[in-house]
Design a protein that fits this description.
6 copies of one chain form a homohexamer.
Chain A (H helix, E strand, L loop, with lengths): L13 E15 L5 E9 L2 E7 L4 H6 L4 E12 L2 E11 L18 H12 L5 H11 L2 H9 L13 H16 L8 H10 L4 H4 E2 L5 E2 L1 H6 L1 H18 L6 H13 L15 H25 L24
Parallel strand pairs in A: 3-5
Antiparallel strand pairs in A: 1-2, 1-4, 2-3, 4-5, 6-7
Helix pairs in contact in A: 2-5, 5-6, 5-11, 6-10, 6-11, 9-10, 10-11
Amino acid sequence: MAHKFINQIEPGETIDDIYIVRDPILRSTTRGDLYIAMFLSDRSGQLNGRMWQATETIYKALPKPGFIHIQGRSELYQNNLQIIINNISVVDASEVHIDDFLARTDKDTKQMFEEVKKIVSRIENPQLKTLVEEFLADRELMEKFCDVPGGMKLHHSYIGGLLEHTHNMLRVAVAILPLFPQVQTDLVLAGIFLHDIGKTEELSYDMAFSYTDSGQLIGHVVKSILMINQKVDTLRAKSTQIEETVMDALGHIILSHHGQYEFGSPKLPATAEAFMVYYIDDLDAKISQVTVAIENEQSDSNWTAWKSALQTRLYKKRIE
Amino acid sequence: MAHKFINQIEPGETIDDIYIVRDPILRSTTRGDLYIAMFLSDRSGQLNGRMWQATETIYKALPKPGFIHIQGRSELYQNNLQIIINNISVVDASEVHIDDFLARTDKDTKQMFEEVKKIVSRIENPQLKTLVEEFLADRELMEKFCDVPGGMKLHHSYIGGLLEHTHNMLRVAVAILPLFPQVQTDLVLAGIFLHDIGKTEELSYDMAFSYTDSGQLIGHVVKSILMINQKVDTLRAKSTQIEETVMDALGHIILSHHGQYEFGSPKLPATAEAFMVYYIDDLDAKISQVTVAIENEQSDSNWTAWKSALQTRLYKKRIE
Amino acid sequence: MAHKFINQIEPGETIDDIYIVRDPILRSTTRGDLYIAMFLSDRSGQLNGRMWQATETIYKALPKPGFIHIQGRSELYQNNLQIIINNISVVDASEVHIDDFLARTDKDTKQMFEEVKKIVSRIENPQLKTLVEEFLADRELMEKFCDVPGGMKLHHSYIGGLLEHTHNMLRVAVAILPLFPQVQTDLVLAGIFLHDIGKTEELSYDMAFSYTDSGQLIGHVVKSILMINQKVDTLRAKSTQIEETVMDALGHIILSHHGQYEFGSPKLPATAEAFMVYYIDDLDAKISQVTVAIENEQSDSNWTAWKSALQTRLYKKRIE
Amino acid sequence: MAHKFINQIEPGETIDDIYIVRDPILRSTTRGDLYIAMFLSDRSGQLNGRMWQATETIYKALPKPGFIHIQGRSELYQNNLQIIINNISVVDASEVHIDDFLARTDKDTKQMFEEVKKIVSRIENPQLKTLVEEFLADRELMEKFCDVPGGMKLHHSYIGGLLEHTHNMLRVAVAILPLFPQVQTDLVLAGIFLHDIGKTEELSYDMAFSYTDSGQLIGHVVKSILMINQKVDTLRAKSTQIEETVMDALGHIILSHHGQYEFGSPKLPATAEAFMVYYIDDLDAKISQVTVAIENEQSDSNWTAWKSALQTRLYKKRIE
Amino acid sequence: MAHKFINQIEPGETIDDIYIVRDPILRSTTRGDLYIAMFLSDRSGQLNGRMWQATETIYKALPKPGFIHIQGRSELYQNNLQIIINNISVVDASEVHIDDFLARTDKDTKQMFEEVKKIVSRIENPQLKTLVEEFLADRELMEKFCDVPGGMKLHHSYIGGLLEHTHNMLRVAVAILPLFPQVQTDLVLAGIFLHDIGKTEELSYDMAFSYTDSGQLIGHVVKSILMINQKVDTLRAKSTQIEETVMDALGHIILSHHGQYEFGSPKLPATAEAFMVYYIDDLDAKISQVTVAIENEQSDSNWTAWKSALQTRLYKKRIE
Amino acid sequence: MAHKFINQIEPGETIDDIYIVRDPILRSTTRGDLYIAMFLSDRSGQLNGRMWQATETIYKALPKPGFIHIQGRSELYQNNLQIIINNISVVDASEVHIDDFLARTDKDTKQMFEEVKKIVSRIENPQLKTLVEEFLADRELMEKFCDVPGGMKLHHSYIGGLLEHTHNMLRVAVAILPLFPQVQTDLVLAGIFLHDIGKTEELSYDMAFSYTDSGQLIGHVVKSILMINQKVDTLRAKSTQIEETVMDALGHIILSHHGQYEFGSPKLPATAEAFMVYYIDDLDAKISQVTVAIENEQSDSNWTAWKSALQTRLYKKRIE
């Protein structure tokens, strides 16, 4: 049976489906009865849930957060939809269809990854070629690379987001590199492919998106560098040397791709290749951010809400 | 007879040619004789000049700056080349081959302008199309547009620099717009074509590059807006209306294309099109700046001098 | 019948008057009955309104926002006054006395405008004189100039605010110009008169204060410049030339009057006149802002709430 | 005999007058002869001086810096005027006419001080009145107040500069206070009178302008506060109490009159009076700075050199 | 009878004790009955209180804020504990045991103060020694010094906090001064002892922590300087001179100990001693801040909430 | 024969010794003779050298820079000492006593390193202990660690500087850790020991101090992380696991020890240990910087020159 998505529930429906429960709280009514307030979510959104006549036993059994199967009905309360729950049972993660719960790129992941591979196969420098192939050959890592979101909030924050972002950046690079003949193609392509690879370790995304401890303490910029060095060590163990000058030029692109110290770049761009990766990254991120913001705010106004990361509201009206 | 370029003069040559004189100073030697120290330049560079046995009359007759015909010889003094002048005569600007004196793009101006016209002819929105055509029909302005430098110092600071910069930006836009289907092509193309049009009034470049008074007081960003409005008024006088929404969307791109308040943008980008023009502008400018800096510093070091505008030195070594 | 102002309603009164309704929401009580929660406002303030036994039809008919005639009574709920509504009917804007709804300067608009005219009539430079008179002769614009608020939030944010602000700035200028004999009086007076003229196009104020689309995309600083250029074009069509040096000096004052890039000035002040207009503007704005903040916070504390625009709380106690 | 001012010396004159010597250096010519290079200055400017056939004894006897009587002649060397010295004798400071050596306001100090006294006599609040009179009665301090420069470099950097600046600020305040009826006149007048009083201890100006050690370690802002508190203590010893609320309101004006933390204000303005003193101070300083810069740069250009404190060049041309 | 601390109350207990009442509000139930909502607090925390069947008379008699004796019972409401009050009587501050109400250092105040005295007794410079002893002899001030909190919010914000902070800073100084032999011990010790002494006048802490008016207008940095100068004046009256060089070196440490202009330092550190006091202050403050934040957030997460003063979340997990 | 140090040469001495030659320039005198101007240096300082009657052959043979043996004499020229060279021969680096040429800590390197080892031997956490021992066992690296300067310019910029800085930081940590019982000693000690270990790869110091290419592209912060990870990999190859939580906590200290983004920290401190290492690092650096600046400026003034890195001049006078 198809999952009933949160954003498709109408008032007065009977609900019998699996959702993620978050932040359940045991409360007592003014009359002294216990009830549980909670949030129910899937990838389409989130609603309030209420289970009246609850017990502390039920409350304690709830995962915080986790998957639960609920039976109940939807109703309108103070103009907001909520779900009144009659029965709750805990569900194991292995039993759910994860795509119902995590937002996911609407592009074809497989096809994007094929194109990524095809584009980086243009790399001619033998050392960068070897290094990139070593990454591509790491099947477990590449699976993560295709799954991990591009970020927590600002842009590409959905399953497959990093791939989509990297894929589009590579396509932009391929389109404009002929216009900048002095820029070293191989470095730009390898730099884009690996610029955020550390996000596979910075972010966790099993049920919801969050930072790993390691991700918060170290950050994806340095994680990316560490992962590249690990691959170089592996190659060295196989008697394939990557020269330090190649490593440094590539590493510099990664370390400077946020472009400014205040965005956590430990280095400022000092090569044409580093500038190019920085601008392509920022361009793709900002266009995505603007597009999503405009799509998500369906009000009558010509303007979105204030976007503090951009220090402006965004204009939604098109000229035609 | 071909002009002898400053950067091709060897020690011990006889010099009989036209150069720009700058900052001449009348000095007396320890023995009391008067001489004139000056700078001599053409588009290829600048040297010290010395005229011994000078008089106050000669000094007063010199343009400050201006063109002079000199006769003399080159010599090495303290490891630097200088020119010892025997005769000086003032030359009218009309008699000189201006290309010998102003740095000029090494690209084909005519061909670039043809491509610019071809690219903006893709604009389909009738109002933007009309507006752009009104600019293209302004022959005098288009001549300036093809001549004016892209800036005073940082990038494209040579005759034809604005055209070269605009041309490359348009090519980048054409290359990447298909990858961002939500971005309005017509606004981006018109925005790029006109983003720095005000530089035709901000900069003067008859003999040397400098700011006009008006350019310094008003700035090219606002000048560009004023010029667009002037064209709209002209069109209105011909009964062709450009709607305010089109004008505002285009004007916003111009006003926000420096991206940050501290770079003199009175508005921050609030549309996808404004972000795109901002990034393409900055990308093309920075790549050009890095390329020129690396080309111009022919030392053995792998690094250029410190670039305060970029807050870093630039790395010159390539990976192959 | 005189309008019953929001801030004069006492608990237990019968209400039968016109107010602006904003953000109405249809809700259901715990028993399932529908009611409408809304805000009711006029120029003196805002209250909560509740209409019990509402229907979706009534809700849908409500303007969002707009004028409504309500019948009901006031009551105290949780120490806050609210209005219980029995009947609602929509009212056309043409039927209301707009002064009841928009905050308005408590100064005499007509008299202030006469004084403004008198002060700018001191301008002796024939070109600036002509230009200013062209503005004064634009009756429709001058009406807007007398009506438009000085800003959205920080200072003079009421009908007639721009006039009051401009008027006071001119009076300050007249008072201090004799103390700065090197400063060009005509430029300062014309600069003040026109410094925010673009706000007539940036702000809308029919029922409530808001930014126009064009205002947000272009901003009042550049709008002011454009309006001045339009007038110059009109004069030119009448064969009256305004020289570029005059235009640039005046334009520079407008473009730099926010004083710092981060406040959206595309230029920094580069003349004594530009500095003077900048300081007079900021002085009048800040004194107004402090005065209003202190007047509006009638608590027992010697301090207002934190003012983030000023990065401090304000001290209310006077020394006597 | 009238002093021969540095900026009035022509080439070929016989010199027999007193100047300040600075930075004398003993050098040897290529032939091994010793000579002394030095700077000679008075309030009108500075020239190079050379004493050929010098000895180490003469060199050691020179004050560094100090007053010397020289005999010699002026000559042109490399287009610059210099003075060739034949005889040097050291002169005691008591023997010189100090006005020849320190730049001095061209306004009438006595008259300005009388006007300052007259303006502050308007103060009605008995405590502020008493406090201000206690300062006025401190004859030694008032003499310094009339002498001390307004600053080291940026504005009013000449003898009598602080008085001139304070005087003009008071006149501005008197002119505009009637336009801001909510602002407490007494606090503004007392605040302006005392806002930079600490400069009498921060700066030394016996022969040249410099910071005192104490001035650099503590700064004039805090020095001013300390001097006010000292006066309050003196008054208290005479059984005249100044209430803490008056002291705090006045002290706050002093401590916040630089307006921003980065200019060394330990507090941001939190009262209308503090804002007014801050703006009047900044307005008078900037207008003075612009005027002096324009007067001092007599080149043909319409623009001064770059002013890093203002982050712009200044425009010198007037509109007629 | 021992005070029943807020954080030790369990649901269902009978309450008969003194608490601080804050922000009481008179509300009416939907049925029209009046009740009073309020906050009840002591040093251990805060709870909601409700008095049903209240009257306006009772409400008006309540201190806002102040001490009240209540009788009632605790109950769980919506998972939060609240207190239902049956009787209220106002209590005079003199009758309460103040330690029950103000958070207080858990260190031994007396012992810390003894150690402070012992450490500063190491000062050998006779003038600093005399000055410090003059402070120690001011019994009333020393009592405040032992009581005042170290700040309002960020660190050591409890009774005795300034003493605890000063004490720990002195111990750090004693521990590290031998490692920096070039640093003048006496200045560092006196500087630390007095660096925040002005907080005794900046903060009030009778029942709750708040800024005094004077504290907000002048700030503790300048207050500290003023207090030191007062002591110097007192000593001078007793014929004991403190030289200006000593005063300036000490004053500079106080004025620069926030280290940066944007934190309200009117001077930047210019001596080794000033740098040392700045770093020891900041180190002790930040470690305390981190420790308290981690202790106070007992959630399961490895991370605290976002700390805007530190621009990060804090990591709670230890490595063992 | 002992080296004659640059700062010990008196005028009129015969010179016959090895120095570093830098920036030699071939110049011609006014009479047309060729001479070579150059700088001569050793660890104690630098002087001008002149070789008259030079030839282009001699000039071309000179290393730029490198070691040369010169014969000549010292003389005073324009109050500055210079060396007149009669003979020059190039010297191989292997023949020089390197200590004569590179500034070197005046502390005992061996003893400091022993103390470092002793202090880090306090680490009890078995994983950190193993990791630190792995570093200590890397003899080649430890030699570099004892040699590398602490930085290029600001502080500890001499051979052995990093060791001296690390050693003093460890001593500070040992002294103050008992005062902060909540801080994890092992992390702080290991963090300090390794915080700048990457400088061994960032800086080169064979004859002069400079950045390596890799150092400039990657930076010592990230280099340190990479070196730690390399050691962890080596340990893993020996079947010794370092857990990720330990690595992350240590890595975070390294990555955040510059304290602020603008100083190139890719992470802000988020643990008490990270704050402690940051403050101890900055304290030791600043005290060293101030001390060196004051020692190096032996002028009569009480103040050093302006220090742009500290945004102040430094006060040199002591209170005794």
